[in-house]
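Subject: for your reference before the review

Hello V.,

The reviewers asked for a structural picture of the protein, and I figured it would be easier to keep everything in one thread rather than splitting it across files. Below is the amino acid sequence we used in the manuscript, unchanged from the supplementary table.
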Amino acid sequence: MSTEKRTSDRADAADHEKEATPRDAAAEEGVTDAASDIKVHLLDIGSGKKHQYGDCVLCQFGDVSVLIDGGHRGDEELVLGQLEKLLDQTSPVTVSLIIISHPHDDHIGCLPALVAQGALKAEWALVSDPQYRWGDPGDTDTDFAGRDARVRGIAEAVLEHDRTDWDDDALTGFIDNVSNLETRYRTMLRQLADGGTTVVLHGTDAAGEAKLIEALAPVRLDVVGPSVEQLRECYRLLQGGQTDAIRTFDSAPDFDFDSAATVANAYRTLVSGFTDSVPKNRGAINLQSLITRFEYKKRRFIFAGDMQFADPQVESQMLIEGVEEMRRNIRKRAPYAFVKLSHHGSDNAFDEVTIADYGKSALYGICCGDAPGHHPHPVVLQLLNKNRDSLDWVRTDRNGLVSITFGTGSPSIELSRGVQDDATPPKKATRTPRTDDFTDSEAASPGGGAPPAAGAQLSAEGSTGDSDYTFTARVPPNATRLSVTLDLQPMGAQSSPAGRAALSIASVNADADFAGDDPQVHEAGDIPPEELTPNSADDVDAEPGSADFLNIDADCGGSWRAAKSLITLRDQVNQRAPRRSKASDGTIGDAAHCQRTSDHNPWVRDGSVGVVTALDITHDPSRGCDATTIAEAIRASRDPRVKYIIWNRRIANSAAIGGSQPWQWRPYGGVNPHTRHVHVSVKPDKASYDSTAVWAI
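And here is what came back from the structure prediction:
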């Protein structure tokens, strides 16, 4: 697309803004009317391995200044220096409003220290109520009473961003620091109030929030969400994860809390899936993020903390539907002069569907430290890059401090370093393995038991001298290669001589992937038990009129195979939940399926081979395979390969059916209620059914 086309698109967006919502002139009375009095600054939030992710944004809407989040703890000097320069103030700096989107360590950041030092003051503060993460004051102290302080630290740490790639000492230091996050947060709120700030707790103080909105009428503050009901549901899920973590350590009374390696490995094990509720509902803390929208001089700006718009990652239909409702609200007010991408440009926050929610919004920002990590996600960067003819983006990990001025023409963007529209993937985190990372599985996992759902199990047998031994180790889920050498040392005079043992590897699947290898072609009548779906009447009434239609028996004859896209999906599920039940799994249907329309029949033809375009996956949440999560993730991703999904008495089609919109759940009245498995059908064109692209689950 030409420069002229890009300019034209952005002019259209600006015109849309002017026409969409006429402003009340009186609301802006008393506010400076300079052409350049609207500025958004994405602060530089540091370099180095401890500066991973983080948010800190300063907005200037005329005389109203808004500070959103506080980067990383320990960065008081870095953040304060930028605020002094941008606000043209010396310490203490004062802003109109402080917003803390949610109680994550990399959003609370250095604000508690700045407030405690008296270096930061505010007229107002709109914050996430701590009760929705920790309950009432003292509740968490009671929950962890009588337990080692590191139990609390690990339980808090698993709710933060994934730091499994950090080395043991750095990770243990983080665990120790995050254990006092609640105290730091509550103390900051009290000190703000004592210093004259009007503190408004979102979800608790509705009257105070209304007064704040009235006081900041010139900037049209709008809190899009989450609702108090959603906050309560998030708290319920977070409490479940905390309880699970506590029980894990209570079952390991001899756990060595003084060992950095043991503590770090316990954290890694919990994050990778030792328990069910902790990793599966990790999205709950991000779903507490305040979504705030400002409108000033007919320009709209939106900030959403770490809200996971693309994939909520929770087992709560109410929260999933709540996210959809907030997205509808965002769409109604699109486009925006500036969008801060939530969750540091993660793929669970931004995708093809989300970018459509923002309409013709032409400027995006990503807040992130430059430490190696997962965000901004390469998939998100590819999506932005694909649309670079109609939008621009900046990112603090590459650009440092970014200042954007909104005047009468196109925004003026000032970068501290780098170039805008940089789609370079972030540096990947690497960690040099230590020998104690690969200890016996019972030592590596508090409480012993089976290996985590993610990762792999390595077993080896061998002998040296007169002794036989068995060695077992847990392979981290991000490992792609593993080499093991055992040096056997003598235990005493009666021991065999020391020697280096040669290992006979019984099984290792660390190199397992889901590349979607060509599925086996089966001859007519050859139906392996693992492929035969046991689900009678599985997709009756999946399509209008299907119950009255009888297939030709010949459709079930001849050689057949399963669609490659579905094999890819199944492999992904198996990798995530290797111990899951497969009791309701299957691709090809039985003879009864052949008497009616069913995607479990090999009715699609690829040359002389029939292709089954349906897959059933067993619901087994206790072993890491939750059909609700899978079904909702596929639906939310709007994967173009999908024909329809059926789960728990509901069906979602990728195309409009009757009066229902595409991708919307509607009641399913088929004979089989689909409460024990999720059914996924793909479209009958080869580009869909044989695509081996990774599924967004």
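For the response letter, the relevant points are probably these. The chain has a mean pLDDT of 81. The radius of gyration is 28 Å.

Happy to draft the paragraph if you're swamped.

O.
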